[in-house]
Write a structure and sequence with these properties.
Number of strands: 27
Subcellular location: Nucleus
Structural class: alpha+beta
Main location: nucleus
Catalytic activity: ATP + (deoxyribonucleotide)n-3'-hydroxyl + 5'-phospho-(deoxyribonucleotide)m = (deoxyribonucleotide)n+m + AMP + diphosphate
CATH class of one domain: Alpha Beta
Oligomer: single chain
Strand content: 15-25%
Helix content: 25-40%
Number of helices: 24
Family: Belongs to the ATP-dependent DNA ligase family.
Largest sheet: 8 strands, mixed
Distance between the termini: 80 Å
CATH superfamily of one domain: DNA ligase/mRNA capping enzyme
Protein name: DNA ligase
């Protein structure tokens, strides 16, 4: 008979098993449900596991269970872990697991080898116990030690298992850039548990309501199940579980749900102890955070790589580990494929990574992200020395990375999350191939894909773009898009990530032809002046954008958040305590011919009876509102400014002047000392006034012009703001 056979406890089944043993023939087929596993996930010499579910035996019958083993199987068991029972199969002693908390410089990976033997694969139970270990109240240093020591054990004992170990430890299932995912939701898990434990789906749902978690629900159902595993399955390994997830991720189309359930069921049945809840949590990727997370694992991998095959581990210092972890993190940002990185570490060492793991066309790069500007003082500091920077519109669309391959002219598009979205934009594929210049053979382009109204030549909101299906044929495209390109990461076989922005921009502009509404370079302004930046910000908002990205011309391309790029949105900047009541004293024509687009606003100096210019207001108006204001103010237009208007005739040069007649409520984000505006002039600094930053129209008020916010109030608000910024 095969190894680890549990005789069925029903009389007929026992008799059949005994007869089969006497005749040395296979046991008779039964009508009991069978589940087969295609892979043992353990030693390659082990036989494939076969699981038979039957009613759970009584206590009396349990005593009659016998395990028949031949001599060869007994010999194999001498080198295997001692299994106390199925529910705790492969569990490693807690005192041994605690050794993982040891400081990395004092840890000896060889001490853990006896846990699963030299020739066996890493047990999945080992990984689950580590997850349990880090779920306890541990300091960050202890968690880092556990992660590093765990990887060192695998590298020293079972290096072939390092790739799945790193993926699962980082709670990552599919390869970066893949358009596949597990495609498993709670409804599928409920159906799976109902089938596995022979109960109704409603019972699973009821228990889930009580426990609040499907992982804990599965553990409860297993403990109460009337189903019994007669043929004990092989212990799960990390490779077996990871390979199963890979199979599931590739199942799509008709009957894919049924196929997924059939693929998952064997590892659910084989999961003993705490393994079951972690498998459920892995399957529900977005519902539960498990593992260490990518940043910790990448740092640990760098540290472990320094120790790997090092004859003198005591010589490894913190500087060496820091350098190695930075190399690993940078490599994953540029080429986020764990398998490639790990193969380099195992075969060439961590110091070979920069040479072997560079940017590869077809593999998405982690995008460079901007750091938000949160205060007016930050803005002032950025432009304090007058250094020129490039300000670009921040478009409200989908971030896209477009890869063009030289070998076959193939184009791939990846979104901000590095997921493949090529089939979503067949029109972009056509445009990008048509508008690249002849000398461009391969490239990686960073851009924003935005919904666009070609008739009105206007940017449309992100909500319009989101109506596009994930897969659409070129003839079925209903939402037109425009590509707004702003960076070039790779060109004709050369990575540009280590080049400054001005070099990358130059390559970008020389590589493509623009076409209005199809492919355009991001609208930008090169300036070192704060006032010019603010005016350009207003233009961006009025053009339907979210704000500005302010970029350092000398900055390299740094995946993840970088201070080389700063994001300016009104929502990010803390506003003043109250809104202001300001008077419109002049106007500028906007993009709609014959209609005012922005207004010169003033506060009121009660002591001198002067209306002092404070800002230019152009945000917060709808198009109908602007038309209404234009019509209403026609009777208030005057040929020249009144004597009680205080303004700088060079800095502010409006198209028309108004009589003071209305007060508008305006929200602002702070104040700066200004030589262009005259609010509270001389109250804070000699011969200079204050200007309101990022004003936004709220509504018309019901006050008279001489009841507007006073110059004294503006000065007090500035002093209050200054005091906060220096605390």
């Amino acid at each position: 008979m095969t190894a680890n056979v549990f005789d069925t406890l029903m009389a007929g089944a026992r008799a059949a098993a005994a007869a089969a043993e006497t005749k040395q023939s296979p046991p008779k087929k039964t009508n009991k449900r069978k589940l087969s596993s295609s892979s043992t996930g353990g030693n390659k010499n082990n036989k494939a596991a076969c699981y038979i579910l039957a009613p759970k035996p009584s206590v009396k019958e349990s005593k009659e269970i016998t395990v028949v083993k031949n001599n060869e199987e007994k010999k194999e068991d001498e080198n295997a872990m001692k299994l106390i029972n199925f529910q705790t199969a492969g569990r490693i002693e807690s005192n041994i697991m605690s050794m993982l908390k040891t400081d990395t410089e004092d840890f000896e990976p060889e001490s853990m080898v006896p846990c699963w033997g030299d020739k066996n694969r890493v047990p999945f139970m080992f990984l689950c116990q580590i997850f349990d270990l880090i779920s306890e109240k541990c300091s960050q240093k202890i968690i880092n030690n556990i992660a590093c020591n765990m990887l060192r054990i695998v590298m020293e004992t079972t290096p072939d298992d390092l790739i799945p170990m790193v993926y699962l430890s980082a709670n990552k299932i599919v390869e970066t850039g893949s358009d596949s995912d597990l495609g498993v939701d709670e409804s599928l898990i409920i159906k799976l548990l109902a089938e596995t434990y022979g109960i109704t789906e409603n019972r699973v749902k009821d228990k889930k309501k009580t426990s609040g978690d499907l992982g804990k629900t599965a553990e409860h159902l297993r403990s109460c199940s009337s189903q019994y595993v007669m043929y004990k399955p092989q212990p799960l390994t990390v490779v077996k579980v990871f390979d199963t997830f890979q199979i599931i991720a590739k199942l799509t189309g008709k009957d894919s749900e049924k196929k997924k359930i059939n693929s998952i069921k064997p590892i659910i049945i084989a999961a003993g102890g705490c393994q079951l809840k972690y498998i459920i949590w892995f399957l529900l990727q977005k519902s539960k955070r498990i593992g260490f997370g990518e940043p910790i694992i990448l740092e640990a991998l760098g540290h472990a790589a320094v120790y790997y095959k090092n004859p003198n581990p005591k010589s490894v210092d913190s500087c060496l580990k820091l350098k190695a972890s930075e190399i690993v993190k940078r490599a994953v940002s540029i080429c986020p494929v764990y398998s490639k990185l790990i193969n380099v570490i195992l075969n060439g060492g961590v110091w070979e990574i920069p040479k072997e793991c560079g940017l590869t066309v077809g593999i998405p790069v982690k995008p460079m992200l901007s750091n938000p500007i949160k205060s007016i003082s930050e803005m002032i500091n950025m432009f304090f020395d007058g250094k020129e920077q490039i300000c670009e519109y921040k478009y409200d669309g989908q971030r896209a990375q477009i890869h063009y391959m030289e070998e076959n002219g193939k184009v791939e598009i990846f979104n901000r999350s590095l997921e493949r979205s090529t089939e979503m934009y067949p029109d972009v594929l056509v445009a990008i191939s048509r508008l690249k210049k002849m000398n461009v053979k391969s490239f990686v382009l960073d851009c924003e894909i935005v919904a666009y109204d070609c008739t009105k030549q206007e940017i449309l909101p992100l909500e319009i773009l989101s109506t596009r299906k994930r897969k659409v044929a070129l003839n079925d495209v209903k939402v037109n898009v425009c590509i707004f390109a702003f960076d070039m990461l790779y060109l004709n076989g050369n990575s540009l990530c280590e080049e400054p922005l001005k070099v990358r921009k130059s390559n970008l502009y020389e590589s493509f032809e623009e076409e209005l509404g199809v492919f355009q370079f991001a609208t930008g302004l090169i300036t070192g002046n704060l006032n010019e930046t603010e005016s350009f910000f207003d233009s961006a908002i009025n053009a339907g954008c979210e704000g500005l990205i302010i970029k350092d011309f000398d900055g390299l391309y740094e995946p993840n958040i970088s201070f080389y790029w700063r994001k300016l949105k009104i929502d990010y900047i803390e506003g003043v305590r109250d809104s202001l009541d300001l008077v419109p004293i002049a106007a500028y024509y906007g993009k709609c011919e014959g209609v005012y687009g922005s207004f010169l606003m003033a506060c009121y100096d009660r002591a001198n009876g002067k209306y002092e210019s404070i800002c230019k207001l152009g945000i917060g108006f709808t198009e109908p509102k602007l038309k209404e204001i234009h019509s209403r103010f026609q009777s208030k237009v005057i040929t020249e400014p009144k004597p009680d208007y205080l303004y700088d005739s060079v800095a502010v040069n409006p198209d028309v002047w108004f009589e003071t007649s209305e007060v508008w409520e305006v929200n602002v984000r702070g104040f700066t000392i200004s030589s262009d505006y005259c609010a509270a002039i001389g109250m804070v600094e000699h011969d200079k006034g204050l200007s309101a930053r990022f004003p936004r129209f709220i509504r018309e008020g019901d006050k008279d012009p001489d009841q507007a916010t006073s110059s004294n109030q503006i000065a007090e608000m500035y002093k209050e703001q200054f005091a906060k910024s220096t605390q």
